[in-house]
């Protein structure tokens, strides 16, 4: 149940309430906290998903029985740790990152989190890296969290390389509130939504900046 205002986007959430929930549902160990705070220690921008989205990504992978997962946009490895920890022992995550410094910090964080054996950090441009790992298809899930102007291209690649029942996940699906803007980012993000909705069972979950969730039919 929700009242009309909350259905239109008004939030009941308050900072204190969210802190209480995070402490209960998404506690961090040392490794996860190090990735969360990478901006403080390494000067990397603090643009990772929140704790609730990280846990949600992991739960979605587990509910889906995912084994082979792709992430576009590693940063310091925070979301990668959540997802890698949700995989079975023989699971694999390919996480793609353009910035060598981000990739180096991510590798250290993933090792500290005890998941380096099941994660490959692929350094380079996202589209080129996707082409380089295509031989491992079909994938169980693709999480898109990199340059917003190319979400349409990442989404198309995912539609081609997901197994039936596989998941397409896209953070920043509101495009920082500019989803309907007549610019490159808005057009790419709308195409990402439209093409996903045509090919998958989809919803845009109202996380802080929207999370597209789609399941291939
Ligand atoms: C929002 S951050 C990823 C956050 C990460 N998924 C998390 O929640 O912990 C986006 C990352 O994508 C990387 N990136 C941007 N454009 C890219 C591209 N064309 N190819 C690969 N990585 C890219 C950036 O360097 C940055 O590290």
Descriptive report:
The protein has ten helices and seven strands. With 217 residues, the protein is α/β, with parallel strands linked by helices. The chain has one domain: Vaccinia Virus protein VP39 (Rossmann fold, 3-Layer(aba) Sandwich). A seven-stranded mixed sheet has the order 3-2-1-4-5-7-6, sandwiched between helices. A hairpin with a 5-residue loop joins β6 and β7. α5 runs parallel beside α6 and α9 packs parallel to α10. The chain is globular.
Radius of gyration: 17 Å
Beta strand count: 7
Q: Provide the structure class.
A: alpha/beta
CATH class label: Alpha Beta
The poorly predicted ranges are: none
Report the end-to-end length measured between terminal Cα atoms.
Answer: 29 Å
Mean of pLDDT: 97
General shape: globular
Describe the main β-sheet briefly: 7 strands, mixed
- What strand line-up does the widest sheet have? 3-2-1-4-5-7-6
What is the N-to-C succession of helices and strands? HHHHHEHEHEHEHEHEE
In short:
This protein has 217 residues and is α/β, with parallel strands linked by helices. The protein has ten helices and seven strands.
Secondary-structure blueprint:
Blueprint: H1 4-7, H2 15-25, H3 30-36, H4 38-42, H5 51-64, E1 68-72, H6 78-85, E2 92-97, H7 100-112, E3 119-123, H8 126-133, E4 139-144, H9 151-161, E5 162-171, H10 184-199, E6 200-205, E7 211-216
Parallel strand pairs: 1-2, 1-4, 2-3, 4-5
Antiparallel strand pairs: 5-7, 6-7
Helix pairs in contact: 3-7, 5-6, 9-10
The structure holds S-adenosylmethionine (SAM).
Notable traits:
20% strand, 217 residues, binds S-adenosylmethionine, 45% helix, single chain, seven-stranded mixed sheet, Rossmann fold, alpha/beta
């Amino acid at each position: 149940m929700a009242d009309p205002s909350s259905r239109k986007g008004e939030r009941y959430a308050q900072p204190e309430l969210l802190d209480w929930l995070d402490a209960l549902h998404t506690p961090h160990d040392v490794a996860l906290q190090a990735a969360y705070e990478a901006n403080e220690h390494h000067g990397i921008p603090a643009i990772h998903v929140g704790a609730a989205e990280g846990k949600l990504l992991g739960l979605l992978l587990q509910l889906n029985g995912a084994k082979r997962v792709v992430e576009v946009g590693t940063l310091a490895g925070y979301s990668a740790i959540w997802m890698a920890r949700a995989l079975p022992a023989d699971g694999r995550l390919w996480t793609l990152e353009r910035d060598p410094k981000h990739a180096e910090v991510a590798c250290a964080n993933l090792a500290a989190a005890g998941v380096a054996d099941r994660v490959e950090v692929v350094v380079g441009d996202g589209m080129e890296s996707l082409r380089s790992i295509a031989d491992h298809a079909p994938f169980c899930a693709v999480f898109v969290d990199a340059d917003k102007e190319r979400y349409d291209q990442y989404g198309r690649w995912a539609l081609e390389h997901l197994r039936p029942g596989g998941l397409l996940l896209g953070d920043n699906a509101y495009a920082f509130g500019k989803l309907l803007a007549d610019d490159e980012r808005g057009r790419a993000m709308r195409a990402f939504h439209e093409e996903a909705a045509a090919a998958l069972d989809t919803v845009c979950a109202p996380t802080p900046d929207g999370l597209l969730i789609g399941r291939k039919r």
